[in-house]
Amino acid sequence: SWTTGSVIEEQVGRIRAQVGEGTAICGLSGGVDSAVAAALVQRAIGDRLTCVYVNHGLMRQDESEQIEQAFGESTGGAELVMVDAEEQFLAALAGVTDPEQKRKIIGHEFIRTFEQAQEDILRERGVIEGAGGDAHTAAPGHKAFLVQGTLYPDVVESGGGEGAANIKSHHNVGGLPEDLSFELVEPLRTLFKDEVRAVGSELGLPDDIVWRQPFPGPGLGIRIIGEVTRERLDILRAADAIARAELTAAGLDRTIWQCPVVLLADVRSVGVQGDGRTYGHPVVLRPVTSDDAMTADWAKVPYDVLSRISTRITNEVSEINRVTLDITSKPPGTIEWE
Ligand code: XMP
Predict the structure, then answer these.
(1) Distance from the alpha carbon of residue 170 to the mean position of ligand 1, in angstroms
(2) Fewer Cβ in 10 A, N or C end of the chain?
(3) ipTM metric
(4) Residues 132-153: pLDDT tens digits?
(5) Which of 335, 337, 338 to mutate to test the pocket of ligand 1 (most atoms within 8 A of CB)?
(6) 4-19 vs 32-45: helix axis angle to the nearest 10?
(7) Can you give the residue ranges of the GMPS ATP-PPase domain (predicted)?
(8) Pocket lined around ligand 1, Cβ cut-off 6 Å
(9) Candidate CATH numbers 3.30.300.10, 4.10.320.10, 3.40.50.720, 1.10.10.10; the one for domain 223-325
């Protein structure tokens, strides 16, 4: 029978068997999945795990700082390397509008960044010597692992499950380059979110990590409908921060599974403000309730809360002149718009 204790024991054993004498890096996203995956691997192989946080410039307001802070309390002393790769990601995304193409590019940049981080870590540990060159030819016999917080629903929706269609190539399952120089460690592959949260609690992770709402790996990159630019990201970050603050203030964080705020960057709508006509952008609020993200319903957020969010966004974010509410369940709509 399923108990969190037995899952932890079994996964720790599997990780030890898989990694052997190798080293691993774990990309932390700030979410519960990668944090729990990291904590399990830390338990299995100790300081042969290094966590890497890549700031891809697609994070929400103040998020990178919060993640760095929360990390100290959460992974039992594993090392954290922060990589600032904003320029690199935004350059790679320039001109791209297709959602799957965005995921592919973001997944690719993640892996390249992890490989670079891995090489730096191995050089620091003396596993590879000299400067430059390829980490994996330079260290024969050394095995490098990449820890991913892939969950069961990700496997199913990315076409990894039996007979499943590829609904979306979640970057942590479907969008990996073919010449990957890491072997993947995926200790959460058979688990649903509620089980991951139970394992996280049992491992002693703090509540604000265990109960964090899901946030996709490609971040705000798949919440801008159209090309991703820094200017658009800043607009979306401002609107998103207001929505999150008001939902939190209303005590709805655990009722709502997540609430993407989506910027319709290629759409303009006419508005009026003061004596003037405006021609700005709409945003969509997408609050949903769900148990596992496989299905979802639109959340019946109280009108007064919606009203505050709308008023504040249109008052405080000058580029946005319209706030709309998505009232589609999943299926047929997915939670994210891309
Ligand atoms: P959808 O939009 O497919 O989302 O209904 C289901 C859940 O998965 C998250 N999501 C992603 N997570 N990489 C991720 O790591 C992705 O590419 C991705 N796309 C969607 C979404 O936020 C929701 O929780």
Answers:
(1) 7
(2) N
(3) 0.99
(4) 555 444 567 789 999 999 999 8
(5) 335
(6) 60
(7) 2-212
(8) 103, 157, 168, 170-172, 214, 216-218, 258, 293, 330, 334-336
(9) 3.30.300.10
